[in-house]
Amino acid sequence: MLMSPHTQITTMTYRHLFGPVCSRRLGISLGVDLVPLKTCTFNCVYCECGWTTNLTRERREYVPVDRVVAEVDEYLATASELDYVTFAGSGEPTLHSGLGEIISFIRDRYPRYRVAVLTNSALLTDSDVRAALMRANLVVPSLDAVSEEIFQEINRPCPGITAGQVLAGLTTFAREFRGEIWLEVFIVPGQNDTEEEILRLRDAIALIGPDRVQLNTLDRPGTEIWVRPAPDLALERIASVLGGNAEVIGAACTGRASSPKAGEVVDLLLATIRRRPCTIGDLAGVLGLRPAEISKYLRILEVEGQIEPVREKRGVFYRAVV
Q1: Percentage, residues of the chain above pLDDT 70
Q2: pLDDT score at 2
Q3: Which class for 92: exposed (0-12), middle (13-18), buried (19 or more C-beta within 10 A)?
Q4: Mean pLDDT lowest for which of 76-85, 133-142, 296-305?
Q5: β-pairing, 54-55 with 84-87?
Q6: Between the chain's N and C termini, which has fewer beta carbons within 10 Å?
Q7: Where are the domains of the chain?
Q8: pLDDT category of residue 252 using cuts at 50, 70 and 90
Q9: What pLDDT is attached to residue 90?
Q10: Whole-model pTM?
C-alpha cells in the first residue's frame, strides 16, 4: 500500500549505500558513500553537494569498514541488474583508508559487478591511494585546470595541494592502473574555458592518456550562485580542441530504472537528494516512478522541512535542508 501524506518516515535501512541511481555516464549505479557530508580535499565552486564543511587531506576510517561491507554484502546478495557499484556521494572517497579493502571485497565476492570510483584526483600522489584503486574496473578522476591560479579559483583545495601535484599524481596513476580511466573536465565559464587554459588541458591530457575525456558543466545548483552552465556549442568547441577521445556528457540518463517498493520510496528520495539536488524528472528516472507520484512524496518531505525547492535554468530542483 502506498504511503499516505500522514505516514511517518522511517529510518533508512542502509546508511552508506544510495540508489541505485540512473547515472548519465554509468547507467544503473549503486552508490557507496564512505565519508560524512561534506568531507573533501576540495571546496569546488560548482559542487552539487554544497560547501565543504570538513576540508581535509587526512585519510582515516571515516565510517566503519565492517558496516559498509555488511551493507554491500546484504544488498548485492539479492541485487537486480546493475551496471556499476560506484564509490561517490558526500565527499572524496579516497579519503577513506579502507577503500581498497571494500573494493577487494566486492571484486572477490561479487565478480559479476563492475566497480567504479569517482575522485577529484587530489590524493593520487599518495602511493597508498593508488594501491587502493588498483582493483577497480573504472576510475573517473577530475582535472579542471592546469594553471595554479585557475585551479585555486575553481577547486579551492585543502592547503598544500597544488595543480602540479594533481597532474603528477594523475600521470603516475595512469601508468600504473590497468583498468579504464575516464577523465572528467568540468567547464566553468569565465574560468577554465579560455584558449590558453584549454590548450594547457590538452597537453596535460596527452601526458595522462585516459581512455575517455568527458566534458561536464553545471547541471544542478552549484556551491556558488555565479557559476553557470557552459553553452552546448562552447563545450563542443572545447571537445574538438582537446582531441578525438573527448566527449560532452549527455544531459539525460540512458539507463534502465526499476521501480522500488512503496515503503522504500521516501527513503530513496531523501538519500538521493541529500547527495545531489534533483528535479522531479531526475528522480522519476532514478526510481522508475511517475512524476505525479514523485511529487506526492516530495510534498511530504517539504512539509516536514527536510527538503526545499530551488529554481534553476533546467527547472525546479529539490535539495536537502542542512
Answers
A1: 89
A2: 28
A3: buried
A4: 296-305
A5: unpaired
A6: N
A7: 25-251
A8: low
A9: 84
A10: 0.80
158-163 mean pLDDT: 97
Residue 237: what are its φ and ψ, rounded to 5°?
A: -65, -45
Q: Tell me, what amino acid is at 22?
A: C
CB atoms inside a 10 Å sphere around CB 247: 16
* Mean pLDDT across 229-237: 94
Report the distance separating Cα 118 and Cα 249, nearest Å: 15
CA distances to 191, 206, 209, 239 from 199, in Å: 14, 11, 15, 11
Which is higher by pLDDT, 48 or 70?
A: 70
